[in-house]
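Internal QA ticket QA-208
Title: Verify multi-chain structure generation after dependency bump
Assignee: T.L.

Test input:
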Amino acid sequence: NRMHLVCPMNTSPYVDPQKSGHSIWEEFSMSFTPAVREVVEFAKRIPGFKDLSQHDQVSLLKAGTFEVLVVRFTSLFNVKERTVTFLSGRKYSVEVLRSMGAGDLLNSMFDFTEKLQALNLSEEEMSLFTAVVLVSADRSGLENVNSVEALQETLIRALRSLITKNHPNEIAIFTKLLLKLPDLRSLNNMHSEQLLAFKVHP
Amino acid sequence: FSDPASNLGLEDIIRKALMGNMEEKQE
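Actual output:
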């Protein structure tokens, strides 16, 4: 009898206990679908992405959408106030969300957000970094790893070039950004575990 | 339930968005 759904891709963390697990799931799906569509539109605009096989485009998006959303929606996590803004625009404090069952994932999201925001990336840098997050040749189920790898290398070179140009005295930013990739994987794994728990025990 | 992305219906949303689903446009 879950009463809360502490994902900011909802309008609210409160779940109507009268509703069935299926209808809760349907509403949740309707809430996050526009954000997923935006990720797909973003992917289509990455030069070279549409040249990958359709199978690999889907595989990359399936594996990486959550990580892209984490990067895109860091603004929902207010590190100073320790609040999370849900889709309705309403803010909830970490303490309130924790009382609703949010645990390690929430803490890790704040840690990631704080470190990423500290880099003060421009919109262009953030966009290119997001493309690097999405186009990862080590995702499972890819049929043409070499093509994905070639695109990944092109994007990483472009990111390094942009960071070097914009921050000539702070090349460590590029290294720090690449080190965010395993952090995102870790968040993705934690999120997947939560989803599995939710699906099995809605 | 071994694939959380499939559980979410993510693959379906992704495929439709990639292909520019006609049914959704009619809606």
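Spot checks passed. The helical segments of chain B are 4-7, 10-19, 22-26.
Status: verified.
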